[in-house]
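As a next step, we paired sequence with structure tokens, yielding the entry below.
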Amino acid sequence: MIIVKTLLLKNTEEDIKTAAELLKNGGVVGIPTETVYGLAADALNPEAVKKIFKAKGRPGDNPLIVHICDFSDIERLNLVTEIPNTAKKLADAFWPGPLTMIMKKSDVIPNEVSAGLDTVAIRFPSHKTAQAIIRESGTVLAAPSANISGSPSPTTAQHVMNDMDGKIDAVLDGGASEVGLESTVITLAGAVPRVLRPGGITVEMLESVLGKVEVDDAVLHKLADNVKVASPGMKYKHYAPRARVILLNCNDEQYIDYVNKKAAEGVAALCCDEDIP
């Protein structure tokens, strides 16, 4: 894969068609979604999917999320062996939106997408431009975050260009991502629905629809090296900024004192709104 220059496309009907044509031909395109920008390729084309892993430097055992533009795509393209009733309930409540559901995959899904697992992660994004690109491409798109693996997820087209210029075919600028955090991932492949990656759809929101929902141990504890990754965001370094980060365990007064002493150009403090003095 030799790409000299990455195209920067606009959010126009013509450029959406250009992006879709690149995807049809096995290319890789950075696309906007409401969560973060995704690095998209035809999810049913194994060779195209391999280009995602190469561009990101992504471990091959880290599965990808398949993006659809309508719930009917799952059955129309035979993406899974069975659609559980729980999936239909969650789709009615949260799709399109920042929720990814894991189900038992069919043979249509390449192993490159599922990382050799018997499941597939599927999401229906709410971003209208993302939907238009998927629809125009005539397929479904595998699309992890459009950054070098381990780096913070991109929320603008420029963020994508910073990491991917010269590595992918194009980036379509659809404005800043509204959510700015990757989707919640829930597996429906077991006896009890289980959250594998936290996100904008909370456990409480999920339980309001399904009843009991479990949270996987990997959400709070690092997976062992020999454990298979069931979902993106479970095992490998994630959201890692290119800066020194110090975690403070102290009261408000000590926190304010520390920040004041360290205040300088290029120094920032991360905290919740309610904790801002």
Observations:
- Residues 13-24 form the longest helix (12 residues).
